[in-house]
Specification:
Helices cover 60% and strands 0% of the residues. The chain is mainly alpha-helical.
Length: 110
């Protein structure tokens, strides 16, 4: 699951009918590659698996990324939750003395 998938999920939660409208207008044409026609006899996996080995590489290899912050976050949830909890606790600890100092200075005013 990549960042574009996360974007699609969030967009669908915010405005599902807008996402449906956009995909209805662009979904089919967005999957077609005009300068790469497919031969009519090409095997496909519509009704049964293709007998050759499946390829994990293709025309988008040059756009692939070696690392993914989103994947790392999904596979290290405990570390992410711990970091967020630590940041919130540190923020609360810093904010708390500042509030008590303000109250003390207010109490000293005549």
């Amino acid at each position: 699951m990549g960042y574009s998938t996360v974007e699609a999920i969030l967009a669908n939660r915010l405005a599902p009918s807008l996402a449906d409208w956009y995909l209805a207008r662009t979904g089919f044409s967005g999957q077609q590659v005009s300068d790469m026609p497919v031969s009519a006899g090409r095997p496909d996996n519509l009704f049964e698996p293709v007998p050759e080995l499946a390829a994990t590489h293709g025309m988008f290899d040059d756009q692939a990324k070696v690392r993914s912050l989103q994947l790392w976050s999904a596979t290290h949830r405990a570390a992410v939750v711990g970091a967020v909890a630590g940041t919130v606790a540190a923020g609360a600890a810093v904010a708390r003395p500042a509030r008590s100092e303000v109250r003390a200075s207010d109490a000293q005013r005549p």
